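Handout, page 2. Input:
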Amino acid sequence: MSENELAVRFFDRAIELLALVRDEEAEPISRAAELVADRVAAGGRVFAYGAGHSALAAQDLVYRAGGLAVVNLLPVPGAVGVEAPATLGSALERVDGLATAVLDHSPARAGDVLIVISLSGRNALPVEMARHAGESGLHVIGVTSLAYAVDTTSRHSSGTFLKDHCDVVLDNHVPVGDTVLTSPDIPAPFAPASTVVISALLQAVIAAAAGELAARGVEPPLLRSGNVDGGTEWNERVLAENADRVFYRR
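Output:
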């Protein structure tokens, strides 16, 4: 099979997953968007945490042209994406107690929304993050692949998964192992699709939340691209108006 054929197969598989998520997750997307809109309309804040490569999808929501200005990254030192050494992030995901300490020292407060993203949803860090957030009065939106709860075991001491500690669960439908392609002449499965699907899923939530806010007569605090005329001035206004709930700007 040629390289181009494999590329086409990946696009086809990614499109299939996107269509599946669009059709199967419409109701959870609406509920997640309503949670976000409720908090934004009330003057609250939204936070996003991603485990491992799921941090890419969390960061995609923060300070993003066309995104909500009040979405903040909740970083875990040593586990933000693939910092060097990249393997440290994987190890920290399995440490009990870390998420509680991070959340307790963050600006997140009761009533705020926390989006927790973990493809497997099985490791201690995302499970504990969601559980402790709920216990602290935050509204938790979990993004995960529910297939892992069927085909794997939890690595958290409670034996639970991320899905068990969320107000709303968004199933990204990505298969266990993340990869979506195989080939007879390639010894391992390949072509991970989770970043594509999860990012699209969360941008759909933000789009729906913006629509919900507009329907309520509330102007969504959206950012514009700084590379279009007037974009910088627009963003300065939006950031100034929401300074008490923006934590990525010093």
